[in-house]
Predict the 3D structure of the following.
Amino acid sequence: MIAALIAPAVLAACAFGYQARGSLSDVPGEMSGKGYPGNRGGGRFVLVDREGRLSCDGLALPPRVSPTPDSCAGEAGDGVVHCSDGREIPVRWEAITCRSFRGSGEDQRGNRLIFRVDRNR
């Protein structure tokens, strides 16, 4: 029970200063939200459209590929995004730096999601 109370606080602390931005081809305008980087690469992010009608919760799993020893740049992996309208979007992501990653995917109807998670400056 204590872990259930502590986990949200830890996630909130890790998210401080991270933003998520993206676009979904059948949704007008940019989507934005928070990013929650993972300790071993990847992480979570939430995107919401401008009107607040559609929200998408993304999970970028830990990397499958780490091409450069002692560097996060170039790490890559898979993930999934679940949206409030019921769609599920498999995604691929790639680390830009140890504090940012980008990715993309396509839903069952061919709508393309592009996203990026960065640390605020």
